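Handout, section 4.2: multi-component inputs.
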Amino acid sequence: MRRTLFESITHGAVTEAPPAPDKAALDELARSVERAARVKLGRSLSIREVDAGSCNGCELEIHALNNAFYDLERFGLRFVASPRHADVLLVTGPVTKNMHEALLRTYKATPDPKWVVAVGACAVDGGIFAGSYAVEGGVKDVIPVDLHIRGCPPSPTELLKGLLALLERANA
Amino acid sequence: MPLLDAITHLDKIKQHRPWARVLVADEGWRQAIDLLAQGRATLFALWGDAPSVHMALLGELYDDVVVLTYNCKGGQYRSVGAKHPPALRPERAIRDLCGLDAAGTADARPWLDLGFWDVRHPLGKQTVARKAVPYKFLPVEGEGLHQIPVGPVHAGIIEPGHFRFTANGEHVVRLEQRLGWVHKGTEHLMEGATLEQAAKLAGRTSGDSTVAYAFAFAQAVESAMQVKPPARATYLRALMAELERLANHFGDIGAICNDASFTLMHAQCGILRERTLRAAEACFGQRLMMDVIVPGGVARDITAESIAQVNTLLIEVRQVFPRLIELYDNTASLQDRTVTTGIVKPDLVRQFGAGGYVGRASGRAFDARQVFAYAPYDKLSFDVPTLDAGDVNARVWIRIREVEQSLSLIEQIMGSLPKGAIITALGKSKACEGLGIAEAFRGDVFVWLRLDGKARVARCHLRDASWFQWPLLEAAIEGNIVADFPLCNKSFNCSYSGHDL
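Output:
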């Protein structure tokens, strides 16, 4: 372990800088997210993720925000375990009838001020699951939504862009 | 011995491919139940197709597959679960979805219908929903026992499900799962869908296995319609399947260590996972490779530049991964958490026919790629690693060994990628039925479908490996401390969406 740790420090061999096109986009995002977050929330925004019926594809990409390439926490954005600690609910999936009540309760448990970001094509209007007996529809059909991040699933970069858009809107 | 030698059967359905489907009466159905109870066959799938039920069996030596169909009488069939517990949850799902009852079952509680739908029996004779009644968890009595309810909304970025723990101090006496929260009615949406729509739905059964589902779905359609995808397409499918396996195994190995608070491993594996997804995007235009596999072949070809990206990935993984394995193996505090934690006994794995790393870590040497040798795996050489310990550590090691196998497979695929077309036109077909099985990273994915004469889906059943793994998690956690549950759960990494459908 010492060797791996030592090499991480001395060589930075594993945690490479992101490749060129991504790096440019990320740097740009990094600067603006940081500026906006500072103004509004003093560099701190807590996100609670709620899967209201997704296929798990969106969760995989949301997870990726925490990896060394995107390193979400450097922007002051972090995922929290309880809605009581959250400023933002990041909701995925078509909202299934079975998850309707659970989503509503999670929303009510989140203190004001709060924002809801609906993530993925299904979260917009149910996506390819729209019209099913088991599906309520999009997230907006159950709780008020401030922003939609589209994509099936949206890439981590698109997710970052979305969170930036939210911050700018919250500041307007 | 062919399974049908031991089962009295009636007509054989002609248009069902590639394995046989036969009608059975009471006697044949009972004989099949006896085979399962005696361990002479494995329950591969059990699903409703109102007014019938289908049971797919896998032979004892994995040398035969057969689908048995029983036409229910008065909406009833003899319970398989009464003698063979792995069938209990599928039977409860069949009742919720199709309204067909398993006569003589020991557990008639609902499973997927949590009381929030507007209809009952959406895949059978639909009736108006009844009022939700409180779910009866299994009774637990004893001095000093307390219960910990968890979910459906969990603390991490994960799917929803409910876990009811009964604990005695720190030790879990019983875990009871309650699933179904992300039920989307996928099989209902499949009915009447075009092949294009249906392939998309199949690819969203479980997002982490989108390639495996699309693969199995395409196989089922191709078997039914007797279409052979071009050789190049099958190699590209396998390339995607192995990239998906790599990405998921990297993610899991890191996440398991993270649940033991060893974040260094999580960070390192996260980098490998991200690099894998970027190589996938370079090759196939999307990080998770959704909708690239289509019935008849694949939707897009790869370029010379993207092949170079895959080669770079292989070089990096071969450099970094051995060091991470060494790190895992030499960190005593981590081993202390994973070794002897969450043991699943080999007998239980065999009884449930658990696939993937859950089965292989407990000595069940089943891998659909090897057993069925579907194209292109018939042309590739690889090992199916197995272990006997059945603990969290063994499930980590199976993943590690499988990463090594996948690297070798990708090298073989790149080295022998055939030239030529990437898709075969499906053409027209009369009503027909097909079965497709593909090995996802977590185990075998089973897709059965019936097409009408207009290339639309009449009925499609998708069975995730999780159906036969989830119940074993209940067994694995027994006697372990509550704090080790996340570790056990992650080492299984069962799919909620794939199970709930």
